[in-house]
Amino acid sequence: MNAIKKFPYTEVLGWSVSRYDKFANCKRQYFYDYYAKYDGEIPFEKLQFLKSLTSKALETGNIAHDIIRDMLFRFQKSAKPLNKDKFFKYCQNIAEKYCASKIFVEHYYGNEMISSGEIYDRVKTMLENFIESGRFKWILENAVCESSKWIIEPDGFGETRINGLKAFCKVDFLFPVGDKIYIMDWKTGKPSLDKHSKQLTGYSAWANYHFNKKSCDIFPIIVYLSPCYSETSVLIDDKKIADFALSVEKETKEMYDYLADAQKNVPKDKKEFPLTSKTFFCKYCNYREICKKI
Questions:
Q1: Is the peptide bond before 227 cis (omega within 30 degrees of 0)?
Q2: Residue 172 domain-assigned (yes or no)
């Protein structure tokens, strides 16, 4: 495969699925997440602290992703079978380390005590589901022989260009089997087929751009690790990638409309970023003490 293309740094806003989701759900949360330094009322340090809060669900996903990443790196070095006792001891240590270094929203807002053991148990189940799956066996039998070509959570943010626009599509795991490219994305929460399919289409566009692969040679797979192992394949063709590019253009334009200077990614005043009317999102927002909507 070709090397991943590099881009010079620019201040121009870059589209991503997660960024646009924040924008669509609540403009004020979006402002706090991406433009905190422009807030003239609330200290930057306070906003950064609230942004840094994690949750049980988020940290479970972070730990599972990072352990699978480390396991795949290990298979790049050696195809020897896992020592499961050592592997799960490592997983437990990682869970304890991550939980000790974070402040959880459930504790900050609800004074709930967070147990690293509870989170580890969830992660362990997800990892067992994966390493006992037929797909894991298939990877070891069909993909390890070309593990030097694996792309595992590449450095940076997965920058690419979609119809000339800056975008970020960072894959979890991309690997060749023969002349085909497979993309796997780990999901630890509830299925959201529309959102996850859009994300995997973005990863396919990333592979199409960086490696000049035909859309028919790219096979993206959504992997659900809980409550049991399951997969959903996303059908990719030229039309789907073209439609995706048009969607990115539209959504980027929407975010540009909230900027005072698009080239320098400088936002309009905070008052131009309204609070959401969908109070469902407020229950899970890190900034709820500032907005006081619930």
A1: yes
A2: yes
